[in-house]
Design a protein that fits this description.
The complex is a heterodimer of chains A (321) and B (323). Chain A has helices at 5-19, 43-46, 58-70, 89-103, 130-134, 147-159, 208-220, 239-249, 263-276, 298-304, 308-320; strands spanning 3-4, 23-27, 51-53, 74-78, 110-115, 140-142, 164-169, 177-178, 192-195, 200-204, 226-230, 233-235, 252-255, 285-287. Chain A is an alpha/beta fold. Chain A folds into two domains: 3-178, Rossmann fold (3-Layer(aba) Sandwich); 192-320, Rossmann fold. In chain A, the strands form three sheets. A seven-stranded mixed β-sheet of chain A has the order 3-2-4-5-7-6-12, sandwiched between helices. The longest helix of chain A is centred in the N-terminal third of the chain and has 15 residues, at 5-19. Chain B is α/β, with parallel strands linked by helices and 323 residues long. Chain B has a single domain (2-321), classed as Rossmann fold (3-Layer(aba) Sandwich). Chain B contains twelve helices and seven strands. Classes of the chains: A alpha/beta (321), B alpha/beta (323). The interface between A and B is large, with 48 and 44 residues. The structure holds thiamine diphosphate and magnesium ion. The site of magnesium ion has 6 residues of chain B, from strand 4. Thiamine diphosphate is lined by residues 51-52, 100-102, 130-134, 137, 159, 161, 163-165, 226, 230 of chain B.
Chain lengths: 321, 323
């Protein structure tokens, strides 16, 4: 049996619905149609009344999830594209994220954000917003990069008693495959050494993991051993694993698909600089998308986001200093 | 109504005396409408009050101490100094703790009612209160439309007090009457004189009964006037004197009192006695909350999530803040 990243997301939701009667799915086109990407295919048939189509009202969609969670339910919200979560932003960051701290009532809400660039998608169907949501207290932000993590982290997200922003990468939906569903997994909050090495650390997450692994392969042929850290979860951020890797290699490049101002890569560099400057043999570097909206045309799109080529160039520069 | 008036005024006095952190928001002139909501709801129902609903909260069962403790920031109150004034509630007991963003609470009421349907719980309703200003938000529109699609037992109560802060109705909406919005959503609309307690009890009672009976969402528009500033910092000098002198400018508390006296259900002496016992009750709550002091930043957990093992520390930063 072979299974894609997208199928893993569907299977995780099927299992969550099956094992917990408090789980339901709410989002646009998720019921009979099975979702814009088919992440909820056939679930409405298998779980009648628990996979519900929503109007194009992101504010009310998340607002409904807040109320349902207060009543003890565990809603999974599918936002059709991460980009459209901004019209539900207020309910996410001001309502869902503040309720536990203000009232002691935990809100187990999972908000699935189909994220990230795919060629031809343009400025409004390509965004990666993990850094934005990680800024707000009260949210957990997950960025699975593998089929196994898509499955196990989504199941764990549904089980967590707090609002979870689940950033699933659209570019990984179809081409990333695994032989079977995982039976065990690292817990949320732990990063993973995706590839061990001693010369330099590339810390990354989500789709960029695969670009970084390609770079590690390429540079291995030249005799350089790159360690690749997959963050898995950007909030909480596993500082210990990052520091341990930097302690081993003395060099750091942090790669993210989001825009360059602030965000996850800046946070990683800030932590390493303030807690582990003495571990570094070279200034830490980061690589992000360009500071423009995500372009539509493939020529521009491929140059906008980090790729194996630009990561390799940045990595060589860090290795030279 | 009377307890709410006294409680609001005592909070305003404390504010003027510099004893309250942040603002004080009164429901003066809106107590009849608000009390009618709290009275017509039953235990087990859902209530999302807004800034001028002291009366409704009390009638729904909120203890005076919850209000006073929240205003004074007592660690023993429901918000423990983490949030203040009107941003209080006990969500698990059916009373939501409003966030400031207008219109946002309606969809949460929808969610509670939706969850109950999934759980097979029937016969309960939810009321969400908003002002005329909140009807201009996208959140209001999305939530009413959502409730209509799901045929939820939601009653949205609009207190049209003619102003949103300083903005008059004419700069807020261009429809003939806010009740007309019900037609657009495919739900039932009602209008009521918000200065008349009996009328409010009738109309709100009817709307809640219909929602409970499965007739879907109801929209109630009450005409009244805010007989105070937006908050206690505001002298409301912009309110049109003609409105003050008109029917909407009547004080609902005086109207209700007149009615009781006219019916012979109370005498001026009993009314005076009510004021006295009510004042006493509020003073006691204030004394209690004042003895409790404020929250201790060194004992605060500073963790915004319930999954403590997933909380990031940032300890040094917090310690630096505390000196
Ligand atoms: C979305 C949003 N915008 C602005 C504000 C600031 N604000 C607080 S109350 C208020 C006026 C509200 O008017 P209305 O809804 O009529 O209620 P009223 O105060 O008259 O009871 C405003 C503008 C807010 N709380 N939320
Ligand atoms: Mg108003």
């Amino acid at each position: 049996m072979s299974l894609t990243y997208l199928e893993a997301i569907r299977e995780a939701q099927a299992r969550a619905l099956k094992e917990d009667p408090r789980v339901f799915i709410y989002g646009q086109d998720v019921a009979a149609f099975g979702g814009a990407f088919k992440a909820t295919k056939n679930l409405a048939l298998e779980f009648p009344g628990r996979v519900v189509d929503a109007p194009i009202s992101e504010d009310a969609i998340v607002g409904l999830a807040v109320g349902a969670a207060i009543e003890g339910m565990r809603p999974i919200i599918e936002i059709q594209f991460a980009d459209f979560s901004t019209t539900g932003f207020n309910q996410i960051v001001n309502h869902a994220a503040t309720t536990f701290w203000r009232t002691s009532v935990p809100l187990p809400i999972t908000i699935r954000l189909p994220s990230g660039g795919t060629s031809g998608s343009g400025p409004f169907h390509s965004q990666t917003l993990e850094g934005l949501y990680a800024t707000y207290p009260g949210l957990i932000v997950l960025t699975p990069a593998t089929v196994e993590d898509a499955y196990s982290m989504l199941l764990e997200a549904v089980a967590i008693d707090d609002p979870v922003i689940f950033c699933e990468h659209k570019l990984l939906y179809y081409h990333l495959k695994a032989d079977s569903l995982p039976t065990e997994a690292l817990p949320v909050g732990k990063a993973r050494i995706a590839r061990a090495g001693r010369d330099m650390s590339i810390v990354t997450y989500s789709a960029m993991l695969h670009e970084a692994l390609a770079v590690a392969d390429e540079l291995a042929a030249e005799g350089t051993e790159i360690e690749v850290v997959d963050l898995r979860s950007v909030k909480p951020l596993d500082t210990d694993t990052i520091m341990a890797s930097v302690a081993r290699t003395g060099r750091l490049l942090c790669v993210g698909e989001s825009w360059p101002w602030g965000g996850v890569t800046a946070e990683v560099l800030a932590r390493v600089a303030s807690e582990g400057l003495d571990l570094l043999d070279a200034p830490p570097q980061r690589l992000n998308a360009k500071d423009t909206p995500v372009p539509y045309h493939p020529n521009l799109w491929a140059a906008h986001r980090p790729t194996a080529r630009s990561i390799a160039t940045a990595a060589r520069r860090v290795l030279r200093t | 109504m009377l307890l709410a008036r006294v409680l609001d005024e005592r909070m305003a006095n404390l504010y003027r005396g510099g004893k309250i952190h942040g603002g004080v928001f009164m429901g003066r002139g809106q107590e009849a409408l608000s009390a009618a909501v709290g009275t017509c709801l039953r235990p087990g129902d859902v209530f999302a009050p807004l800034i001028r609903d002291t009366a409704g909260r009390l009638a729904f069962g909120e203890p005076v101490l919850d209000a006073v403790r929240t205003y004074l920031g007592s660690p023993l109150g429901p918000m423990r100094g983490r949030d203040g004034n009107v941003h209080r509630g006990r969500p698990r007991e059916g009373m939501l703790a409003m966030i400031s963003h207008l219109g946002a609470m309606i969809a949460a009421v929808n969610g509670m009612l939706f969850a109950r349907r999934l759980k097979g719980i029937t016969g309960t309703v939810g009321v969400a209160c908003v002002g005329d200003g909140a009807t201009s938000t996208g959140a209001f529109h999305e939530a009413l439309n959502q409730a209509a699609i799901e045929h939820l037992p939601l009653v949205a109560v609009i207190a049209n007090n003619q102003y949103a802060y300083s903005t008059p109705n004419a700069r807020q909406f261009a429809c003939r009457d806010l009740e007309d919005k019900a037609l657009g959503y495919g739900i039932t609309g009602h209008t009521v004189d918000g200065t008349d307690l009996n009328a409010c009890l009738d109309v709100i009672g009817d709307a809640i009964r219909r929602a409970r009976d499965g007739q879907g969402p109801q929209l109630v528009v009450a005409r009244l006037l805010r007989l105070c500033g937006h908050g206690e910092h505001d002298d409301a000098g912009y309110v049109d004197p003609k409105l003050r002198a008109s029917n909407v400018g009547r004080d609902c508390l005086k109207v209700a009192e007149r009615f009781l006296l006219d019916q012979g259900w109370a005498t001026p002496q009993t009314v005076a006695q009510w004021w006295e016992t009510t004042s006493h009750q509020v003073d006691e709550a204030i004394a209690t909350a004042q003895r409790e002091g404020g929250p201790d930043p060194y004992k605060e957990s500073w963790c915004a999530i319930s999954s403590k093992h997933l909380c990031e520390g940032y300890d040094e930063v917090c310690d630096t803040h505390l000196g």
